[in-house]
Automatic annotation (TrEMBL):
Protein's name according to its UniProt entry: HTH marR-type domain-containing protein
GO molecular function: DNA-binding transcription factor activity
PANTHER family (alphabetical): MARR-FAMILY TRANSCRIPTIONAL REGULATOR, TRANSCRIPTIONAL REGULATOR, MARR FAMILY
Region described as Disordered: spans on this chain: 1-21
GO biological process: response to stress
PROSITE patterns: HTH_MARR_2 (PS50995)
Domain named HTH marR-type: residues: 22-151
InterPro entries with a match to the protein in the record: HTH_MarR-typ (IPR000835), MarR/SlyA-like (IPR039422), WH-like_DNA-bd_sf (IPR036388), WH_DNA-bd_sf (IPR036390)
Amino acid sequence: MVKLISGRATRMPTPPHPHDDEIETLDRLIIAMLRLRFHLDTTAAGIGLSAPQAHALLRLGEPLRLGEIAGQMHCEPSHITGIADALEQRGLAVRQPDPADRRAKQLIATLEGHELRRKFIAGLLQDMPVLSPLNPADRATLLTLLRTADTTIP
């Protein structure tokens, strides 16, 4: 590759070519992500929630600060405010001061919220793309690989 720098042609190093298996891995991960997203959206709609509302409810196995939910969902905290409002209006969650820091708010699933969360998880696990074709040993291997690839989730 040649690039003009200060009016002179300068040879630039050629970027490395990805291996075919890297390209296939990337392609398969993207396809799996899209299939999982469609499954999540469809399952959420089946219980009457938007995908972001269902995703937030999925996080509420225990009380979480709104900022923690935003971090886990990779979105701005202001976005979580609207989601929390919708979950509260449906009677699925309540906001309460965090006992460790009363300035912060926690979102806590109600009994109805926990029941809908359980139903959502059951729906997600039924005929789940990517996991359904795998045997238990392959699922355990996949979980280990995912944990290794993403250390941001505790």
